Amino acid sequence: MKVGSFAKAIVSAAAAGTASLAVAMGDSVIETGEWVTVALAVLGALGVTYVVPNAAQSERRPY
Question: Where is the signal peptide (predicted)?
């Protein structure tokens, strides 16, 4: 079990949810459609971020 995969998915889901919630709060009222948008942003970020693997580390160039 890789903790990095879960951690990056949770952080990206929190960021997506917070960003979409901030936009939804623009008029100080959150309607049902806006809650759906927040939920889809969180679920999308969780799914996409968890599925995409971390990049392999490349060799460091001597400077």
Answer: 1-24
**pTM, rounded to two decimals:** 0.74
- Burial class from Cβ neighbours inside 10 Å (0-12, 13-18, 19+) for residue 16 reads buried
**26-37 burial, b if ≥16 CB within 10 A, otherwise e?**
eeeeeeeebeeb
With CA atoms as reference, report the closest residue to 24 among 14, 11, 37, 13.
37
Phi, psi of 3 (to 5 degrees): -70, -30
* pLDDT tens for each residue of 2-33: 676 688 888 999 999 999 999 999 999 999 99
